C-alpha cells in the first residue's frame, strides 16, 4: 500500500498551464507518481518543460536562461495586443505545512522577455502580487501582505526573475502577516527547487567518459563515472540497483561495474558472473534507458545534477524526477519493472516522479499511480 507523503515535506500537487505552447486553461493534478499520457503532439513534453522552468525560476534563475526561445512558449494562435506584446502563463500549487499555496506567473515573450505579473496566494488571500506598471522601467511594482499597521507593503522587484524567492530578502517577518508570506514563499521554493529533468541518451552512455564529472547529468552521458562513485559510496543502494538491473535486463546479472583506466577515463559493464562482462556499449537502447532511469530513481539529490534548497535540511525536501519518454524503447517487462521501482521509491516520500508516456494502459491498477490523459483532459 502507498504510504502518505511525509509530513513537513513541501511538494507540487498541481501544474497549471493557462496559456503555454499547445495548452490553454489546463490543470494537471500531480501525485507522488504521475504519468502524463497521450499521443505525440499532445503536449506531454511541454508540460514537463513548464515544470522544469518553474523549478529553475524558483531557484532564482533569470528568465533569459530559463527561456532561451521564449516565443516558442507562446500559444501558436495568440495574437499580439496593440503594443505588439505576446506572452504565456504558467503556475503551480505547492502543498505542505503552510497548506496549499498557489503561484501564478505571466511572462511577456515579445517584444521583450520579462515577468509582467506574479501572484502568490493561500486560502484565497493574495500574499504577493506584482504587475508591470511602467514598461520603460526594468522593474515590476510589487505588493506583499503585511497585516500590521500597514496592511500591504509596496516596492519594486526586478522583471527578469520571480519575486517569490526574493521575498526573504525583502520581508522582515515582524508581523504575523509577514511571517505567513515568508512561510508560503519558502514552501513554494523548497517544493520547486529539487527537480531533476531526465531523458537518458543511450548514444552518449556507450563509450568511456572522463572521471570526476560530478553529479549525473539529465542525458545520463556520464553514467559510467557516476556508477564508479555510487558503487563505492553506498553498498545497500548499489545492491538495490543491481537487483533492478537483474529484473529488467536480459541474461544473468551478478553486478554492475565501473573501471577507471590509466588515462582517467571510466567505462562501465554488466558483470555476468564466471568472469564474463558486457560493456554498456553492447547493450540495447532499451536496456541503457532502463538502467539509467533505475539509477536515477534509486539515488538522491547528492548524486544528481539538481539545485536543492541548501538552507533547508534534506529531510524536509523531496526530489521530483521529470522523466520525458519514461517508457521510450522499453519492452513490456522493463517498463513494468521500472514502474515497480518508481512506485516503491515514491511511496517512501523521498522522491516524486512525473513521467511522460505514449500510453498508460500498462500502468492500470498500480497502487499510487496518477494517470493524466492529455488527449482527453
Q: Could you state the order of secondary-structure elements as H and E?
A: EEEHHEEEEEEHHEHEHHEEEHEHEE
The strand order across the widest sheet is 2-1-4-5-6-7-8-9
Helix tally equals 9
- Beta-strand share of residues: 25-35%
Global shape: elongated
Using DSSP, what is the number of strands?
17
Stretches where pLDDT is under 50 for at least 5 consecutive residues are 1-5
How much helix is in the residues? 25-40%
CA radius of gyration is: 22 Å
Q: Summarize the main sheet.
A: 8 strands, antiparallel
Compute the average pLDDT: 90
Structural class: alpha+beta
CA distance, first residue to last residue:
27 Å
Explain how this protein is built.
This protein has 377 residues and is of the alpha+beta class. Helix content is 27%, strand content 30%. The chain contains 9 helices and 17 strands. It has helices at 44-58, 63-66, 167-170, 176-193, 202-205, 223-233, 235-248, 285-298, 332-347; strands at residues 11-20, 23-29, 33-37, 86-95, 101-110, 114-122, 125-131, 139-145, 152-158, 195-198, 209-210, 255-260, 265-273, 276-279, 319-323, 351-357, 369-373. An 8-stranded antiparallel sheet has the order 2-1-4-5-6-7-8-9, covered by helices on one side. The protein has a 5-stranded parallel sheet with strand order 10-15-16-3-17, sandwiched between helices. Strands 11, 12, 13 and 14 form a 4-stranded antiparallel sheet that branches. A hairpin with a 2-residue loop joins strand 6 and strand 7. Helix 8 (285-298) runs parallel beside helix 9 (332-347). It is elongated, with a radius of gyration of 22 Å. 48% of the residues are buried. Mean pLDDT is 90; it is low at 1-5.
